[in-house]
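Tip: read the tokens left to right.
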């Protein structure tokens, strides 16, 4: 359904060509943006470089490293990171894909004439066929430790696979660099989770080694 709304483009909202066209389409611009676009076009027609700089968004980099990478073409300006996602013609289609609910099914009028949430909504329950969004009945009665390890597994497995798949998808630039970043990111996350698990054990051991000599008047040697 999303690909159909995006003209069968598997990159969905990411498309530099559509973004450039939509940036010049006055149907997707505010009144202020339309005026700036008109002034910019006049500046280009009259070949006025000072006016062009006035109505063109500056390409700003912060920091020496980012500035160097930007000049080499490896980093976009900070305010243009998601410029290729400004495909407003596709956004307008996707935003209205979902059906709009009927307010009469959600609200009703009480005895005082005030609008209140309809009581019949209390009888709606989540089923396997039609499950509630953001509803996780499988997590009821499960310990926090189990949920933690499940979360770690999902992050290290699902996020890595999804990230690599999206990086290799058609239309993505610097695919190998993106894949390498996802592997490094997963390794760092694994190390961070490992620290969270081992830190309480390390603190408990340090606490024991500190108190044991005080109470027994003996030195405790691990090895």
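Filled-in amino acids:
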């Amino acid at each position: 359904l999303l690909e159909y709304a995006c003209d069968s483009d598997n990159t969905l909202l990411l498309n530099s060509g559509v973004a450039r066209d939509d940036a010049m389409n006055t149907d997707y611009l505010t009144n202020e943006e339309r005026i700036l676009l008109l002034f910019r076009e006049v500046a280009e027609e009259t070949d006025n470089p000072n006016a062009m700089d006035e109505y063109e968004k500056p390409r700003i980099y912060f920091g020496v490293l980012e500035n160097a990478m930007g000049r080499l073409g490896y980093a976009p300006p900070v305010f243009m990171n998601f410029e290729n996602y400004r495909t407003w013609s596709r956004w307008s289609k996707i935003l209205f894909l979902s059906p709009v609910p009927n307010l009469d099914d959600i609200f009703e009028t009480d005895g005082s004439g005030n609008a209140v949430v309809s009581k019949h909504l209390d009888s709606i329950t989540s089923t396997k066929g039609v499950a509630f969004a953001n509803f996780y009945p499988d997590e009821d009665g499960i310990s926090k430790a189990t949920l933690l390890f499940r979360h770690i597994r999902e992050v290290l497995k699902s996020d890595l696979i999804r990230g690599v798949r999206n990086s290799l998808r058609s239309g993505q630039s610097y695919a190998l660099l993106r894949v390498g970043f996802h592997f490094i990111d997963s390794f760092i996350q694994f190390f961070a989770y490992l620290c969270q698990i081992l830190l309480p054990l390390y603190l408990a051991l340090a606490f024991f080694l500190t108190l044991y000599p005080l109470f027994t008047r003996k030195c405790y040697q691990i090895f």
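Residues 135 and 194 are 28 Å apart (CA to CA). The first strand starts at residue 107 and ends at 109.
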